[in-house]
Amino acid sequence: MFQKVLLFQILISAAICSRGLRNTVSTTFIKQTTTGTITSEIPVSTRNDKVELTVYYETLCPASVDFFVTQLKPTVKRLTEHLDVHLIPYGHAKTFRSRGRYFFDCQHGRRECFANMVHACAIDVLRNNTHSIFFNSCLMQYISYQSNYDYFVSVVSWCGYTEKVHIAEIWKCVKGLRGNILLKKYGDATHELSPSYVPYLMINGSTQHQDEASSDLLGTVCRILNPKPKACRS
Ligand SMILES: *[C@@H]1O[C@H](CO)[C@@H](O)[C@H](O)[C@H]1NC(C)=O
Ligand SMILES: *[C@@H]1O[C@H](CO)[C@@H](O)[C@H](O)[C@H]1NC(C)=O
């Protein structure tokens, strides 16, 4: 029964969050120059004990939520010192410019644009990948596209409390120009790649491990790491 429900959810999520048919994209190396000041520059790792993962996603997409909660967070928890994760919260959104400001149109509506911006601001304010993954993962776990604004605000407070995040700074970013600029930059990075579905995963700048990583991130990262750290052996 559980498996049936899960399968159903996966089918629904695929239907909601893909932009056209899922096809194999064979991009190998992507320049991240447009992300400039937002994500630190992403050179191909030169060390053997670190895997670089870039996650393109949108906050209200059930498949993205599922990836954060069941794959990303547990993997980061175990292998934090072997991962260099970059979050790109934008997905299938559109950016418009009007009177010196950017406006966004998101796949799951205005709530999603708002939640994407909260994620972007959390990444910016915390400046600690592990911490922002835990906080953003908490947000994703408790909100859905049915959540109203007041509920969303209370979830931000709750996650701030459980993950020890100073949310006042995040609200300041969301309400000010900073959040607007951050989301625009993530939009540029996403449009450059134009993923046909989310979550879209790049490992060391390649999509080669996309499929295995979306359903077994820990196993995938462990297969790539050499030598295998202790956390991969237990
Ligand atoms: C990622 O980079 C590390 C370090 O150079 C390397 O050991 C690993 O094999 C690379 N993984 C992939 C998938 O290219
Ligand atoms: C980053 O955040 C994690 C999780 O909250 C924490 O354990 C770690 O000490 C932080 N790293 C730095 C450099 O502050």
UniProtKB/TrEMBL annotation:
Residues 1-22 form the signal peptide. The keyword Hydrolase does not apply. GO terms for molecular function: oxidoreductase activity, acting on a sulfur group of donors, disulfide as acceptor. It comes from the Eukaryota. Keywords: Glycoprotein, Signal. InterPro entries: Interferon-induced_GILT. Belongs to the GILT family. This is Gamma-interferon-inducible lysosomal thiol reductase. It comes from Arctia plantaginis (Wood tiger moth).
